């Protein structure tokens, strides 16, 4: 019965999360192409500069509160309302800090245009405080169908606004508007479609219990965010806004794919693992399936993207973005390894070991920062390569504790991923070989995609890859029970 319930929840959740993420992916992909053609790299660079500070502040607003609510098995309406008020209060505090710090940040970058860009963009924080609790409620109750509508409406509406403003010459403001409209629409649609509303209930004991778990997650996420943004901070300060734009645009495509895949599966598996936090065998089983399924999708996406990187950039973004090709290829290699990181961290958080999560983040991020410091004098490319080194190190650190926690060792994880990796590697070789034929960019990329997809599917059938048949099973399960939310 337990296995049946898990399977039913996983099937419904993963199908809806994939539908949401990939629909949003397609829309965002089209919007990003149009905007990249209308705007200049320097304008993207300005947004990247201020996103460093907004993303760091957002950690305090979102991460720990929502994770604590999902992890707690018996979270009630008082818990949700308490975390809502805590999150909102902190968001207002950090908005004030960024508002008054804007002139200092602008002087740091020697760009006075950033002052009001940052002050307006920071309005995202109070919106995010509401949205994070809504997301926790949806995840806690496995209502992933709600995400689909809020995400799609928000993505489409914000894309239209951003493109219209860029067309009429609003420059960097079109990107700011796109971000803000997306956040507002996502939050508004969830407010309409879910039955949770904040009440006047506020419990100090609830706040204390949830924050005792959540603050460690928040601090760990803060370290992760600061570390992730430190590369952009260094590039934006030491080099040019164009350099930062090429670096970020190169990372954008692979990150969009892996974030959506990890989010689709991770959003489902974390609450499921949390529900069975007292059953190590079941936790390992769920995590193992999650890792195999995520890597089966991620590996070919990243290696396929690496194979078609040059014609893709030329076709979609034009020659003015050609420098981004190198950064795209490097980012693909690093993003391939994310499934291992994601699942291992889910296991640790679901086990209630936020203390261990924090210690690990400190070790990983301090090491990562040292890598950035060592690379920064050798150019932007060296900084990008340091990211791959840091991901490999993080893989090992994240996996080691789970051998003791749930009996899932790093070598066992590698063994589970190896069939998917080998199939993806053969697919890459076949697709990349097409680029040497000498066809025009359009025919090259079409043949690469067709060849890569055919080779990967053929290998999946021949070697009976477990994740391939698991995906087929998910689709069949959904067809036999299409009305399940």
Alpha-beta classification: mainly alpha
Query: Helix amount, in percent?
Result: over 70%
Q: Give unreliable regions as ranges.
A: none
Number of helices: 18
Mean pLDDT: 84
Instruction: Give me the strand/helix succession.
Output: HHHHHHHHHHHHHHHHHH
Shape: globular
Q: Major beta sheet, specifics? A: none
Number of strands: 0
Strand content: under 5%
The whole-angstrom Rg is 22 Å
Our measurement of the CA-to-CA distance between the termini, rounded to an integer number of angstroms, reads: 19 Å
Please describe what this structure looks like.
With 485 residues, the protein is mainly alpha-helical. The chain is 85% helix and 0% strand. Helix 1 (2-38) runs parallel beside helix 6, helix 3 (77-109) runs antiparallel to helix 5 (124-140) and helix 9 packs antiparallel against helix 10. The mean pLDDT is 84.
């Amino acid at each position: 019965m337990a296995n049946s319930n898990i399977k039913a929840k996983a099937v419904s959740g993963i199908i809806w999360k994939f539908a949401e993420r990939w629909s949003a992916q397609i829309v965002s992909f089209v919007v990003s192409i149009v905007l990249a053609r209308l705007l200049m790299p320097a304008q993207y660079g300005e947004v990247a500069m201020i996103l460093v500070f907004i993303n760091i502040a957002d950690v305090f607003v979102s991460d720990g509160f929502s994770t604590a609510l999902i992890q707690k098995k018996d979270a009630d309406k008082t818990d949700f309302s308490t975390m809502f008020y805590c999150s909102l209060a902190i968001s207002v505090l950090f908005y004030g800090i960024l508002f008054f710090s804007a002139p200092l940040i602008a002087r740091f970058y020697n760009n006075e245009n950033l002052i009001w860009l940052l002050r307006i963009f920071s309005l995202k924080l109070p919106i995010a405080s509401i949205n994070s609790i809504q997301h926790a409620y949806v995840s806690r109750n496995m209502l992933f169908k709600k995400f689909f509508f809020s995400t799609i409406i928000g993505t489409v509406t914000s894309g239209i606004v951003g493109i219209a403003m860029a067309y009429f010459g609003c420059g960097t403001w079109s990107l700011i508007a796109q971000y803000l409209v997306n956040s507002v629409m996502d939050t508004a649609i969830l407010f309409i479609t879910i039955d949770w509303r904040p009440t006047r209930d506020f419990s100090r004991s609830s706040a204390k219990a949830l924050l005792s778990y959540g603050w460690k997650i928040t601090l760990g996420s803060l370290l992760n965010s600061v570390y992730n943004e430190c590369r952009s901070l260094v590039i934006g300060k030491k080099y040019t806004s164009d350099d930062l734009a090429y670096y970020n645009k190169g990372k954008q495509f692979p990150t969009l794919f892996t974030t959506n895949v990890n989010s689709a599966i991770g959003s489902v598996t974390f609450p499921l693992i949390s529900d069975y936090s007292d059953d190590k065998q079941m936790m390992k089983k769920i995590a193992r399936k999650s890792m195999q399924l995520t890597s089966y999708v991620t590996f070919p996406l990243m290696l396929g993207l690496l194979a078609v990187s040059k014609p893709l950039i030329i076709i979609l973004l034009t020659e003015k973005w050609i420098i981004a090709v190198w950064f795209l290829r490097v980012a693909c290699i690093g993003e391939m390894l994310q499934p291992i990181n994601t699942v291992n961290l889910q296991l640790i958080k679901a086990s209630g070991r936020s203390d261990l999560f924090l210690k690990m983040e400190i070790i990983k991020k301090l090491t990562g920062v040292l890598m950035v410091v060592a690379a920064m004098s050798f150019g932007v490319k060296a900084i990008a390569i340091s990211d791959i080194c840091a991901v490999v190190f993080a893989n090992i650190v994240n996996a080691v504790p789970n051998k003791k926690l749930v009996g899932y060792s790093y070598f066992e994880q590698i063994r589970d991923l190896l069939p998917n990796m080998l199939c993806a590697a053969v697919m890459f070789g076949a697709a990349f070989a097409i680029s040497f034929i000498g066809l025009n960019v359009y025919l090259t990329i079409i043949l690469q995609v067709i060849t890569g997809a055919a080779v990967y599917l053929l290998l999946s059938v021949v070697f009976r890859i477990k994740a391939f048949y698991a995906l087929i099973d998910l689709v069949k399960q959904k067809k036999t029970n299409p009305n399940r939310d």
